[in-house]
Amino acid sequence: MMPWSSTLLTDLYELTMAHAYLQHGMEQPAVFEFFVRKLPARRQFLIAAGLEQVIEFLLQLRLTDEEVRWLESTGRFAPALLDYLRRLRFAGDVEAVPEGTIFFPHEPILRITAPLPVAQLVESRVMNLLNFQTMIASKAARSVLVAGGKPLIDFGLRRAHGAEAGLLAARASYLAGFAGTATVLAGMAYGIPLYGTMAHSFVQAHQDEAAAFAHFAESQPDNILLLIDTYDTEEAARKVVRLAPALRARGLSVKGVRLDSGDLGDHARKVRRILDDGGLTNAQILASGNLDEYRLKELVDSGAPIDSFAIGTAMTTSSDAPSLDCAYKLQAYAGRPCRKRSEGKATWPGAKQVYRHYDDAGQPAFDVVTTASDRQTGTRLLESVVKDGRRVAPAPSLDDIRRLVATQLTQLPARLRTLEQAPPYEVRIAPALQELAQALDQNEPALVTGSTQGDRG
User: Fold this and answer.
1) Helix %, strand %, coil % for the chain, to 5?
2) What range(s) does the Nicotinate phosphoribosyltransferase N-terminal domain occupy (predicted)?
3) Which H or E run contains 258?
4) Residue 335: left (phi > 0), alpha (psi -120 to 50), or beta?
């Protein structure tokens, strides 16, 4: 079992609260929702990602005998909790926006309805999965928007924050529009196309750079993509040109070269001329090396003759916005809507639905957040994905999610597709939801009927 699949990958307070809930008979249905309070700087939108991993986690929720025995050995927990954990299963409901949906602050993208101890116990891992993949997919989409259709490749595993992060970053960037990844396990696990070249160490291990190119070509006849900046970039390009006739005589062709350092735009222009003058007009140029969406935009806007880009650290760690101001909050318990009123962290109460409205051009115009029972015009975003612990429908393929993202990015208004700060997208809070919050704030017992339960329609 991978460590990240364990139900004990959680915060201690989830267990201590579950202990107290059980001790005091608090096992009625609870409604929790995941949402983001505000966007990171210079972000105009977020892409919901990680839902599939959340569903897998919930449907496989259980503790092994070994884990329960270990909890018992700590002396922290009563036998009643340990017995509960031995029988732990998720038999609740999940409503969520489809993975790949663009969303905005204050909009719930996932709602879990389950007995209070269960809905509480899953908090940490649910947040962990949604926060990370949403953060990475949203970062990756920014590069997709400025790449001008040129292929982008995930090269970020080696500097990812751990094994699972590297694997899930490959998934999140692919669904956001990247062409593929260098992470081999992502190819096996998710069917993501694999891309790769060689490292500088391969060239350094040879006494002669041209020999390194020849050896690699012999070993990888269908992927002759040569790294040419270990020593002198332009001279290496000339060596590739000189090697090409011998390769061609053996039925091999140079697929391209990779640039990984220096002024990538300048090197690309010089190398392109060398390759073209040498008859390698079909050889492509791949650029890598500390790229992010800003450097990428500069290169594309300058007309640098680069055919594809590999992006690593900045994307895999979302370096400029490495976390989201996200929350998983109790919205109702035992039929009673709940509202947090903490300064700067107040929540809207009850189970909610989001409706998206489009203008005449088919672009999103504004969203409305309301109670789950308040029917509105527009497109409903949250839909049932798990009912009574069972999937409502088969999981969409990663390519289906990818197509949804591509469509939604195309539909975005121009101001939301930029890298710089822009006027925010409008998210309206419906009167029904405002009235429910006001009633709670005034401690009125007569609350809006039906607003505390999830939308079963």
Assistant:
1) 40, 20, 40
2) 8-131
3) strand 256-259
4) left
Q: Which residues pair with 364 in a beta bridge?
A: 358
Count of CA atoms in the C-beta half-sphere (13 A) of 194: 15
From residue 76, alpha-carbon distances to 68, 70, 73, 81, 333 in Å are 12, 11, 8, 10, 26
* pLDDT one digit per residue (tens) for the chain, 457 residues: 566 789 999 999 999 999 999 999 999 999 999 999 999 999 999 999 999 999 999 999 999 999 999 999 999 999 999 999 999 999 999 999 999 999 999 999 999 999 999 999 999 999 999 999 999 999 999 999 999 999 999 999 999 999 999 999 999 999 999 999 999 999 999 999 999 999 999 999 999 999 999 999 999 999 999 999 999 999 999 999 999 999 999 999 999 999 999 999 999 999 999 999 999 999 999 999 999 999 999 999 999 999 999 999 999 999 999 999 999 999 999 999 999 988 888 999 999 999 999 999 999 999 999 999 999 999 999 999 999 999 999 999 999 999 999 999 999 999 999 999 899 999 999 999 999 999 999 875 544 444 444 443 3
Asked if 119 and 32 touch (Cβ cutoff 8 Å), the reply is: yes
Do the beta carbons of residue 374 and residue 432 sit within 8 Å? yes
* Cα(161)–Cα(174) distance, integer angstroms: 18
Tokens of 263: 């002024």
Please give the structure tokens belonging to residue 121: 């116990």
Query: Cβ atoms within 10 A of the Cβ of 88, count?
Result: 16
Residue from 168, 182, 195, 218 nearest 56 by CA: 168
For residue 304, give both structure tokens: 């640098």
Answer yes or no: pTM beyond 0.90: yes
User: Across-strand partners of 354?
Assistant: 369
24 CB burial (10 A radius; 0-12, 13-18, 19+) = exposed
